[in-house]
Amino acid sequence: MAIFLLSFNAVNAQTWEKYKAEDLAFVAYYPKEPKRTVQKVSTAVGELDMHMIMHAPTSGDDNAVYSVIRSDYPKEQFKDADDEYNATVLNGAVNGAVSNVQGKLLFDEKITFNGYPGRSIKIEIQGGFIYINAYLVENSMFITQVICLSSNDENPSIKRFLDSFELIKVKQ
Fold first, then answer.
1. Please, which pLDDT band fits residue 43 given cuts at 50, 70 and 90?
2. Cβ atoms within 10 Å, residue 38
């Protein structure tokens, strides 16, 4: 039985596909090839491009959505940014995520990723949960997220996807 489980895990690990976006400066592993789109979004600092790389399985997966989102703020907005300013920007991202889905924030942890500030949150929504890691990399916001049904909460693919995210550029 143990050999079967090991071989099953090895086969399962091979099914995820590496997605590398050099122009967006990240790598992540998805269960299947994701789709890439760009939307214009209105913000307090003007209209921004929101790059979304998403896979939404139709069946046979524990999760409904796997996505990485990148938005670039104007560089001048971060010219003299300090830790307090960065925390304010991340707070806005967290509050926006919760209010956009009319959810309930279940946990919110300050994290550091490759030297950059971030937040790890979990939002309860009707019928499910959203897991988000948000990273502020200079003037760019990266958001990795997984959406799952309530019945599939805390499944191993959530952590696998979120942990697969890597920045191509690392802070010196």
1. confident
2. 9
pLDDT for 44 beyond 90 = no
- Please answer whether residues 123 and 129 qualify as being in contact, where contact means their C-beta atoms are separated by less than 8 angstroms: yes
Q: Which domain holds residue 161?
A: 18-167
Measured between its terminal Cα atoms, the distance across the chain in Å is: 47
Domain containing residue 24: CATH number: 3.40.1000
For residue 69, tell me if it sits in a domain: yes
Region 10-23: what's the mean pLDDT? 78
The predicted model scores a pTM of 0.89
| Angle (nearest 5°) at CA 165 between 163 and 167 | 135
Round to whole Å and give the CA distance between 121 and 90: 11
* SS3 (DSSP) at 4: helix
What is the chain's length?
172
As a whole number, the mean pLDDT across the chain is 90
Q: Please report the pLDDT score of residue 14 as a whole number.
A: 55
Q: Which long-range contacts (CB under 8 A, 24 or more apart) does 35-44 make?
A: 41/71
Q: Which residue has the tokens 């143990």?
A: 2
CA distance 38 to 40: 7
